[in-house]
Write a structure and sequence with these properties.
This protein is an alpha/beta fold. The protein contains 28 helices and 8 strands. The strands form 2 sheets. It has a 6-stranded mixed beta sheet with strand order 5-6-4-3-7-8, with helices on both faces. It is elongated, with a radius of gyration of 30 Å. Keywords: Ion transport, Membrane, Potassium, Potassium transport, Transmembrane, Transmembrane helix, Transport.
Length: 777
C-alpha cells in the first residue's frame, strides 16, 4: 500500500518497496485478523446453556400469543365445530412454515457476524454492493477483520450481474433503503402494539374471578401496568427482563401441561388437525369468512422476527434447539388443548385461554401470564431500541443519546425520547381500541409486513452473497412470499377496523426518516462540493493571520477528505487554532463491530510542522461510542502510534532510496495519487500522502519522535476542545414547494427538537464550541 502525506504545493505518490503498510493500523490489525465467526466454535455444553437462556429472552412474544389467537380468529363466534380443526391445522402449519422453516432453518444463517434483523440484512448487502447514498466508503474498510467480502465466482456471473445493476441504479438503492426503513417502522409499530395487546389480554383474565369488573376498569389496570413498564426501561433489559427470564420457562411448562390436560379430558380427536386437508375443507365451508379469519391466525407467529433480531446474544444452533425442543412443542400443545376445550364449549371462544385452565391452576397461571406479558413486551421494546440505534448509524434519524444499559449483555440500549413516544402511543392505543381483537387487526399488519421485508432482503442475500441456484431462490421467494401475501391480503380487509393504525404509524415514521436522510445526503454532497483543497491549508492559515493556542482541537465533520467549509468560517470568526488540531470523522461501517485496534485511520494534513491531522474513527452499527475522556485518551495514544510509524516508514524509505537509487518499480506496485482539488467518490481511500521533491516525509530536525509524542501528551493535559458545525439547512429559492416543506419545515423541526449531536457523542458542554453556518441546497 502506498503512503502519502498531504502538503501544500502538490503531492506525488511513492513506490511501495520492501515495507508492507496497513496505514495507521499496521501491527495491531494483524493481531485480530483471525477473528472467529459467530458461534463457529462453541461447545455443546455452552450451546445448550445458550439454548436454555434463549427460552426466557426471545420467545416471550410468540409464547404469549395463545392468550388472544382464538378470540381474534373467531370474533363472531364458532359457527361449525369442524372449523376448529381447520383453524388448528392453519395454526400448526403456520408455525411450521414461517418461524420454523423460514426463520430457524434459513434466515438465521444470514446473520451479520452474529447480529440479526432487517437492518443487519441491509448492512450485509451493502458490504457486497455499494448501495449507500453517501460516498464515504474507503478501501481500508474492507481490511477490517469481520468485513469479509467475497468476490462472486466466475462460474456464477448472475451474482455479479445483479450487483452491477443495483450499484448502477439509484432507483434500486432508494428502493432498498425504503424497504429497510419500512421494516424498521413496522418493528417500531410492533414494539408499540406488543405491550398493549399482551398486557391487555393477560389482565382480561381477572374478570373470570371478578365478573363485576367492567372492560373500562380492565383497560385502566392495563394502562397502569404499561406506565410502569415504560417507566422502568431506563434501568435496562438485563435488570428488567433477565431478572424474570425463568418465568417464561415456567410459562411454557404451564401452557404445555394445561394443553395436554385439555387434550386428554375434552377431545383427543383434534389431533386429526395435523392432516392439512382440514384447511381445504375449512375454506370450502367458509369461503370469504375463512379468508378473513387468517388475520387472527397469523397472530400465532407474532414475535418471530425477534428470534432473528436478538440472535446476537446467542448462536444459530442454540436458537434451533430451543425452538424445536421447547417453544414449538409447548405452544402447539397449548393450541391443541384449547381446540379440544372449544370442541365442547364453543361459546367460550371469546376468552378461551383462561376458561380452559383447571380451577386449581387459575391464579398461578394468571400471575405468570401477567409476568410473561410484561417480559414479552420488554423483549420487543429492547429489540425496537436496538434496531433504531442501528438505524441512527445509517443517517435516518437525528443523533440522539443512545444509553447502553448493560455491561454484561451487549447491545442492550435505551433511547429516552423513543421510549416516551412509544409508551405514550401504546397507552393511547390501549385506551382507544379497548379490546385485543381490535388491536390484533393492527398488530397483524406490522407482523406480516416485517416478514415480507425480510423475505425480499433474504432473496437478495441468496442472490448476491450465498449465490444459490436459481431454483432454490425462486422456491424460497415463491413459497414464503406467497404465504405472506395471502395473510397480508386477509389483514388488509380489516383496514377500517384498526388495520389503518400501523399504516399511519409507518407513514409518519418513514416520512421523518426519509426526510432526515434526504437532507443528510444533500448536506453531505453540498459540503463535498464546497470542500477546501488540503494543499491550500497554509495559504488559508496565513491569509487569516491564525495563531496557535494551547490544547487539542477536534473539529467534527462528516467528510473523510478535504477541509470542510465550516473550518474557513471558524478561523475567519476566531483566528486561532489549537496546537494539535484534528479533523474528526465518526463513521459507521456496515458491520456490527469494529475492534478497537482497527478503530482509527490517520493522515497528515498540511506540512508536518503545522501538526494538523485527519482522523476517521470507525464503528460498527452495534458499537458503543466511548465517553469523551476515554475517547480523547484513546485518540491521543493512536496519534502517537501514527507519528511513530510515519517516522519508521520515512526512515525505511530513505534507506531504500540510498541503497537502490535507480530501482524501477513495476506499475502494479505503485499507486497514483488523486488531486485533493477534485471531488473524490466512493472508492477513494484515505492514505497519508508523501510530498516534497524527494518523495518522503520531512521531520523537523529539532524535534525527535519522542518529543512530538511528549508534546501531544502536554497539549492533551492542557485541554481538549470539541468543535461542531451547527448547520442551518434551507431549500434554495428555486426549489419546489414540496422540497421547501421537507427541508424548511419538517427537517428544521427535527433538527431543533431532536438533534443532540454533542450528547450522542458524549461531549461535555463546557468543552464544546459550535460554529454556525448556513447551507442552501
Amino acid at each position: 500500500m502506498s503512503l502519502e502525506v498531504e502538503r501544500p504545493g502538490g503531492t506525488e505518490s511513492t513506490n511501495r518497496l520492501s515495507l508492507k503498510r496497513h496505514d495507521s493500523l499496521f501491527g495491531d490489525a494483524e493481531k485480530v485478523s483471525g477473528a472467529k465467526h459467530h458461534g463457529s466454535e462453541v461447545s455443546w455444553s455452552r450451546t445448550l446453556h445458550l439454548a436454555f437462556q434463549s427460552v426466557g429472552i426471545i420467545y416471550g412474544d410468540i409464547g404469549t400469543s395463545p392468550l388472544y389467537v382464538y378470540s381474534s380468529t373467531f370474533p363472531s363466534g364458532i359457527k361449525n365445530n369442524d372449523d376448529l380443526l381447520g383453524v388448528l391445522s392453519l395454526i400448526i402449519y403456520t408455525l411450521i412454515i414461517i418461524p420454523m422453516l423460514k426463520y430457524v432453518f434459513i434466515v438465521l444463517y444470514a446473520n451479520d457476524n452474529g447480529d440479526g434483523g432487517t437492518f443487519a440484512l441491509y448492512s450485509l448487502i451493502s458490504r457486497y454492493a455499494k448501495i449507500r447514498l453517501i460516498p464515504n466508503q474507503q478501501a481500508e474498510d474492507a481490511m477490517v477483520s469481520n468485513y469479509s467480502i467475497e468476490t462472486p465466482s466466475s462460474q456464477l456471473r448472475r451474482a455479479q450481474w445483479v450487483k452491477q445493476k443495483i450499484v448502477s441504479s439509484k432507483a434500486a438503492k432508494i428502493a432498498l433503503f425504503t424497504l429497510t426503513i419500512l421494516g424498521t417502522a413496522m418493528v417500531m409499530g410492533d414494539g408499540t402494539l406488543t405491550p398493549a395487546i399482551s398486557v391487555l389480554s393477560a389482565v382480561s383474565g381477572i374478570r373470570e374471578k371478578a365478573p363485576s369488573l367492567t372492560q373500562t376498569q380492565v383497560v385502566w389496570i392495563s394502562v397502569a401496568i404499561l406506565f410502569m413498564l415504560f417507566s422502568v426501561q431506563r434501568f435496562g433489559t438485563d435488570k428488567v427482563g433477565y431478572t424474570f427470564a425463568p418465568v417464561i420457562s415456567v410459562w411454557f411448562l404451564l401452557i404445555a401441561g394445561i394443553g395436554l390436560y385439555n387434550l386428554v379430558v375434552h377431545d383427543i380427536g383434534v389431533l386429526r388437525a395435523f392432516n392439512p386437508m382440514y384447511i381445504v375443507h375449512y375454506f370450502k365451508r367458509n369461503g370469504k369468512d375463512g379468508w378473513v379469519s387468517l388475520g387472527g391466525v397469523i397472530l400465532c407467529v407474532t414475535g418471530t422476527e425477534g428470534m432473528f433480531a436478538d440472535l446476537g446474544h446467542f448462536n444459530v444452533r442454540a436458537v434451533q434447539i430451543s425452538f424445536t425442543g421447547i417453544l414449538f412443542p409447548s405452544v402447539a400443545l397449548c393450541y391443541i388443548g384449547q381446540a379440544a376445550y372449544l370442541r365442547k364449549f364453543p361459546e367460550n371462544v371469546g376468552d378461551t385461554f383462561y376458561r380452559s385452565i383447571p380451577a386449581p391452576l387459575f391464579w398461578p397461571t394468571f400471575i405468570v401470564a401477567i409476568c410473561a406479558a410484561i417480559i414479552a413486551s420488554q423483549a420487543m421494546l429492547s429489540g425496537a431500541f436496538a434496531i433504531l440505534s442501528k438505524a441512527l448509524s445509517l443517517g435516518c434519524l437525528p443523533r440522539v443519546r443512545v444509553i447502553h444499559t448493560s455491561k454484561k449483555y451487549e447491545g442492550q440500549v435505551y433511547i429516552p425520547e423513543v421510549n416516551f413516544m412509544m409508551g405514550l402511543a401504546s397507552i393511547i392505543v390501549t385506551i382507544a381500541f379497548r379490546t385485543t381483537t381490535s388491536i390484533g387487526n393492527a398488530y397483524g399488519i406490522c407482523v406480516v409486513t416485517t416478514f415480507s421485508v425480510t423475505t425480499h432482503l433474504m432473496t437478495l442475500v441468496m442472490l448476491l452473497i450465498w449465490k444459490k441456484h436459481i431454483v432454490f431462490i425462486l422456491l424460497f421467494y415463491v413459497v414464503f412470499g406467497f404465504t405472506e401475501l395471502i395473510y397480508l391480503s386477509s389483514i388488509l380487509s380489516k383496514f377500517i377496523e384498526g388495520g389503518y393504525l400501523p399504516f399511519c404509524f409507518a407513514v409518519v415514521l418513514m416520512t421523518l426518516m426519509a426526510t432526515w436522510h434526504y437532507v443528510h445526503v444533500k448536506r453531505y454532497w453540498y459540503e463535498l462540493d464546497h470542500v477546501v483543497p488540503t494543499n491550500e491549508m497554509t495559504t488559508l492559515l496565513e491569509k487569516n493571520d491564525v495563531r496557535r493556542i494551547p490544547g487539542v482541537g477536534l473539529l467534527y465533520t462528516e467528510l473523510i477528505q478535504g477541509i470542510p467549509p465550516v473550518f474557513p468560517r471558524l478561523i475567519k470568526k476566531i483566528p486561532s487554532v489549537h496546537s494539535i488540531f484534528v479533523f474528526m470523522s465518526i463513521k459507521h461501517l456496515p458491520i456490527p463491530h469494529v475492534v478497537p485496534a482497527e478503530r482509527f485511520l490517520f493522515r497528515q494534513v498540511g506540512p508536518r510542522e503545522q501538526r494538523m491531522f485527519r482522523c476517521v474513527a470507525r464503528y460498527g452499527y452495534s458499537d458503543r461510542l466511548e465517553e469523551s475522556k476515554e475517547f480523547a485518551g484513546f485518540l491521543a495514544d493512536r496519534l502517537k502510534m501514527f507519528i511513530q510509524e510515519e517516522s519508521a516508514f520515512a526512515q525505511n524509505e530513505a534507506e531504500n532510496d540510498e541503497s537502490s537509487p535507480s530501482t524501477e518499480v513495476p506499475e502494479a506496485q505503485t499507486r497514483p495519487w488523486r488531486s485533493t482539488h477534485s471531488v473524490v467518490h466512493s472508492e477513494e481511500a484515505i492514505h497519508p500522502r508523501v510530498s516534497s521533491h524527494s518523495g518522503r516525509i520531512t521531520f523537523p530536525a529539532n524535534h525527535s519522535v519522542e518529543e512530538e509524542k511528549q508534546l501531544i501528551d502536554r497539549e492533551v493535559e492542557r485541554g481538549v476542545v470539541y468543535l461542531m458545525g451547527e448547520a442551518n439547512v434551507s431549500a434554495g429559492p428555486k426549489s419546489s414547494i414540496l422540497k421547501k416543506i421537507v427541508v424548511n419545515y419538517i427537517y428544521t423541526f427535527l433538527r431543533k427538537n431532536l438533534n443532540e449531536g454533542h450528547n450522542a457523542l458524549s461531549i461535555p458542554k463546557d468543552q464544546l464550541l459550535k460554529v454556525g453556518i448556513t447551507y442552501e441546497i
